[in-house]
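Homework-ish question, so no full write-ups if that breaks the rules, but can someone show me the predicted structure for this set?
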Amino acid sequence: MAATASTTSHSLLLQKTPQNHAFLKPNSTTFTLTYQRSPKPFSISCSATTPTQDRPLVQSQPQDRVFNFAAGPATLPENVLLKAQSELYNWHGSGMSVMEMSHRGKDFRSIIEKAEADLRALLNIPEDYAVLFLQGGATTQFAAVPLNLSRPDDTVDYLVTGSWGDKAFKEAQKYCKPKVIWNGKSEKYVRVPSFDGLEQSPNAKYLHICANETIYGVEFKEYPVPSNPNGVLVADMSSNFCSKPVDVTRFGLIYAGAQKNVGPAGVCIVIVRKDLIGNAQEISPVMLDYKIHAENNSLYNTPPCFGIYMCGLVFEDLLKQGGLEEVEKKNKKKAGILYNAIDESKGFYRCPVEKSVRSLMNVPFTLEKPELEAEFLKEADREKMVQLKGHRSVGGMRASIYNAMPLAGVEKLVAFMKDFQARHA
Amino acid sequence: MAATASTTSHSLLLQKTPQNHAFLKPNSTTFTLTYQRSPKPFSISCSATTPTQDRPLVQSQPQDRVFNFAAGPATLPENVLLKAQSELYNWHGSGMSVMEMSHRGKDFRSIIEKAEADLRALLNIPEDYAVLFLQGGATTQFAAVPLNLSRPDDTVDYLVTGSWGDKAFKEAQKYCKPKVIWNGKSEKYVRVPSFDGLEQSPNAKYLHICANETIYGVEFKEYPVPSNPNGVLVADMSSNFCSKPVDVTRFGLIYAGAQKNVGPAGVCIVIVRKDLIGNAQEISPVMLDYKIHAENNSLYNTPPCFGIYMCGLVFEDLLKQGGLEEVEKKNKKKAGILYNAIDESKGFYRCPVEKSVRSLMNVPFTLEKPELEAEFLKEADREKMVQLKGHRSVGGMRASIYNAMPLAGVEKLVAFMKDFQARHA
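A: Not a homework solution, just the prediction itself:
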């Protein structure tokens, strides 16, 4: 079966796609589409076996796709990537890419409005909270939070359970009087303190936490309550955003860089109670003033349109999965088998984090014999499990297993860890 | 010719692609690839005429692609979009999308380093200038420029030739003592003043211009020289960045949102002389401090990776076109035929901008009979020429004809304008 035509085509995908999937192998279907921009003829060749009986679509990794355990940017859902790819050149018949759309046109407005509506549905965000799609990552929010929620003489509290909370505290020193009310650094950030013993500042405008410390793998399972009745809880949720249900009403403000669980880098989502908006310090850059963005529905200046579109596709996918209750179940299962493998390794693998606050998203672990770490990483890489190296500040390994990491990826990692241990114990 | 196979495929593209191109029509090549995620068989049907003689690849618009005259986000080069699409799911055999890559991994480092190297080649950027890939658009730079280049008591000068220059001035008022040394507002922003008559502040740390005012279509063809020998020229080049050669050494700092000429929204490029870095005011958010970004090669926090990748593809494309000299020739030709059509319309169409400073990028024009504007837009839209409506603050029409707008798009617009005039004069 072959055809030639004196035309050009831009369909670059076909050649590799059917070979992408391990579960296709038995049927040995191959296609070739030669791509040429010149006016020369191109050829199509197709060979396909006769249909076999229907087989269930097993959860499997496409053959040339790796399991990516990076801490962020991180793996994205395969179906979201494929949808984005299919729509990239011409979104919904609009005749243009999402990247080319005016942010003030009706097409992009429909995209950002749906993204917000789906996020509101996922997290059950009440109407008295604004949802903002911003730029600059959580690091920009380290400044925006104190600039919007405090005055220069105000006291604010920081509960520091890792590097990110510490960075947030340091940035706040420029804009108000932040106080660290607990710091896990001397214990190498392995736990969250008991909330009862915390000495909060009586007049603190807010209490800041990092809900999941990406580097150390420490995750809040409960949330503290500000002792100042006029204070609010603020959380950096960058690395566990939309990984489980969260009662938004417990917080005055939640912010999250998108590049771990909900999209590509370049989008930062802020969920803020509306009555907290409108008090930015005079020195606040206009781009860090929540009021400006809330009044303009995140369209004061040109937003990161394509990133917001990608987040929207992810939100849609999470809703289709059954919402965050279902997502949390999957995340608990994935994290459970990985932590179990570590704990049952008789010390060959170790996770230093206190069991009650181990992160469902970022699983740091070390080898009893650190000299084996390089070999571990090399072999894992060969098995197409990548980005397992721990953060440079702590060493060891770290498996980030965000929403989009398939169960199969964790199962493969655990099988590999057991095999590696058997060979090197 | 037909084949069936009991497999699934993610190749969503094939079905429409060959029909995308007007120049394919005579050969009537059609393909159908049914996409199914279920394990049901899919079918391929191909029909192709016999090869005809090779025909030159004429510059033509793919049939279902529109000519997008939006001011930004704006049209991107078709070949760049197609390359991005082909690589979206699996970049260069890495097993992942660019959107999933760790920004500290070797793959993304190769992407950002090549993007910077290509931009340096395009603009001939000397080694004593840093190139930064940032977030937050030009609007963030409106604050970052005074925060980095001045102290609170310093005087700085703004030459205001449109809304963007005015916004930049207003933001600077938070951080230093900016002075407007010329303002075109009373004349409705139709010109650039003579530089000889400018009363610059003797000690101004910098002189700020907006090199191309997107809304009003006013473009600097020459650049003023700061009268303070220790002062520098700063330019917002968002809407004419990489549209023509620029002598970077004339400037202390150039900044540009990417979403007009070089990429999607969400990336802002800063080119800054290195000796100007390192003096940010204490109140500057860390994300607005050039020193942080320069020391970390734009990787202090997670950068907008996919946007930077897209910019890199555009830079590569501009180099392949022969660099900015060639690009400028094309832009002059496109703008020339459009302005000629306006000027030769005997007043049916009018462009208010002084001829010597008319923008090669943004061409605003009005109709002698404003009551025809809605009809003009409606008919143009029907002809697949979209986003021609002028900015809400000025009305009328605006055709943004950035680098990626093909000559064919401008020719089609001009033909339409003449036809519209013939029918409505």
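Now go work out the reasoning yourself. Hint: The mean pLDDT of chain B is 88.
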